[in-house]
Structures are given as structure tokens and as C-alpha cells.
Write a structure and sequence with these properties.
281 residues, Rossmann fold, alpha/beta, elongated, single chain, 13 helices
């Protein structure tokens, strides 16, 4: 049997081509051997049972072949909340936390109706429900698999107030009678162009759902619909808040007509224009 330290070093060696080989080797070792951070640092010479060692090496092999780390561990942290993810469900990205931050900043913190369009793993909807407990949150997605993950995450976080409904973009809102009643429409929509898709890393193209990332020739197909159709559901003086691609700021701003005011664009921590908020007049 190998020790914690020996397996950790072996993992680093096997994952040597990855930028964060050391960190990822540790994460996979903790997950496969059910070790805590304290165990890892306090007991480096503890022997790991052969069955768990085999599991660790299988995890490392999957990661080395390009499988995203979050699909191997089965979770990804977002807004300091652990979210369950699995193949077929888009992995939450840290830059999307800016979208949650802006909605919380604009909120009255009173009773509001918030709609998360294309919820994926439910990370935006659940984070907003936690931050704004008086709000009613509806989350939509056309993917059955995504809604399965989102409902499971809501259950794990005891956020029973979030309503999850299946449907493409705004279609479920008609059945819910939400026309003219929304205080916020929030979305991290697909915004990758066909050309950008071809240039994405192999682990994204081969493992993450294409339909959750790609939106037509210029990447703006879904964003156009969000801007065009959301006024039907928003109250006056209420907000559309969307995430955009790195090079989309100017193109997206041109899509807003004169029924919109207080249009603002915010950069993420990398200085990339990432979130646009706009108020329906």
C-alpha cells in the first residue's frame, strides 16, 4: 500500500502537463480516499487501502484524458456553496458570481419575482434565493438533465422556495402567468460563437454540453431573444441582467432599444466586460 504523501507525489507526476497539477492531485486524492484537509497535512505517512489507491489512479487517468475536474469530483463551488454537477450539465464558472452580485445590489430585498433563464445546475437561482430570502425565484431550463441537477442542489441547500420548470427561454412563464410581473430576469445564456467553439479547449468541447455554450454564428442568438422578449415579462423599472462573452460588450449594447434605461456594463476580476444590467422604462 502507498502512503498519502506517495500517492500525492505520484498524482503530481502523472498530471504534470496540467497548469495546476499539484492542486488537482490533492483534490482528487482527498475525494477518492475520503480524506479531510487536516488528514492530508497531519498524516502524510498514513497508508491508503489498495481499493482507494486504485480509485485515485482512475480519477487521475480520467483527468489526464481531459475529463473536467468537476465531473470527476461531482461538484463545483459557486458563491461559497458546493453544487453537484455531472456530465451533460454546464459547470458553473467563478466569473458568473458577478451576475449574482449585481442582482443582489439592485434588489430592494423585499418581495420580488426573479426569473433565472437557463438555470443549468441552479447555481444562480439558489445563490439568489439564499441572499434574498423574501424573493420568489423561478428557474427555467430546456434540459431535463440540468433541471435534475438543479432540483437536487436546491434540496441539498434546503432552498425549497425555488420553482424549477422545463421549457425554452420564456415559454414556461406564460403558463405561470408571469407576464408583466417580474422584477428581475437573470441569465447566463449561451454566448459562444461557432468560430469560438472550435477554439475552445478539448476538455470543454468533448465533455460540456454544446447547447449550453454555443449561440449561433456570432454567439448572440440567445442574448437577442432575451433583450427582445424580456420586456413582456418585466414590470416597469425592473431589470434584465445578463452575462456576456469577452468580446461582446459593444455588440450587445447596440441591441438595446429606447424602452431600456440605466444600461450598465461591469467587468469581472480579470478586467473583462462580463455582466450587463438594463432597466425597463
Amino acid at each position: 500500500m502507498s502512503t498519502v504523501q506517495e500517492l500525492f507525489r505520484r498524482g503530481i507526476q502523472l498530471l504534470g502537463d496540467l497548469p495546476q497539477a499539484s492542486l488537482e492531485a490533492k483534490i482528487l486524492l482527498l475525494k477518492s480516499a475520503a480524506l479531510s484537509e487536516k488528514d492530508f497535512h497531519s498524516y502524510p505517512h498514513r497508508e491508503i487501502p489498495l481499493q482507494l489507491e486504485k480509485r485515485f489512479l482512475q480519477y487521475v487517468s480520467r483527468r489526464k484524458s481531459g475529463c473536467p475536474l468537476s465531473y470527476i469530483t461531482g461538484e463545483r463551488e459557486f458563491w461559497s456553496i458546493p453544487f453537484v454537477v455531472f456530465p451533460g450539465v454546464l459547470i458553473p464558472r467563478p466569473e458568473t458570481e458577478l451576475l449574482v452580485e449585481k442582482v443582489v445590489g439592485l434588489s430592494s430585498r423585499k418581495e420580488e419575482l426573479i426569473v433565472d433563464v437557463g438555470t443549468g445546475a441552479g447555481n444562480i437561482a439558489i445563490s439568489l434565493a439564499r441572499e434574498l430570502p423574501l424573493a420568489k425565484v423561478i428557474a427555467t431550463d430546456m434540459s431535463v438533465k440540468a433541471l435534475e441537477a438543479a432540483r437536487h442542489n436546491a434540496s441539498l441547500q434546503n432552498e425549497s422556495s425555488v420553482i424549477f420548470v422545463q421549457g425554452n427561454l420564456f415559454s414556461p412563464l406564460f403558463e405561470l402567468g408571469a407576464e408583466g410581473k417580474c422584477d428581475f430576469i437573470v441569465s447566463n445564456p449561451p454566448y459562444v460563437s461557432e468560430k469560438e467553439w472550435e477554439a475552445l479547449p478539448r476538455e470543454v468541447k468533448e465533455h460540456e454540453p454544446r447547447e449550453a455554450l454555443v449561440a449561433g454564428e456570432d454567439g448572440l442568438d440567445v442574448i437577442r431573444r432575451l433583450i427582445d422578449e424580456s420586456p413582456r415579462f418585466l414590470k416597469s423599472k425592473s431589470y434584465l441582467c445578463i452575462e456576456i462573452g469577452a468580446n461582446h460588450k459593444e455588440d450587445v449594447l447596440l441591441l438595446f432599444g429606447n424602452q431600456w434605461g440605466e444600461i450598465a456594463c461591469f467587468e469581472d476580476l480579470a478586467g473583462i466586460p462580463r455582466v450587463i444590467t438594463a432597466m425597463k422604462d
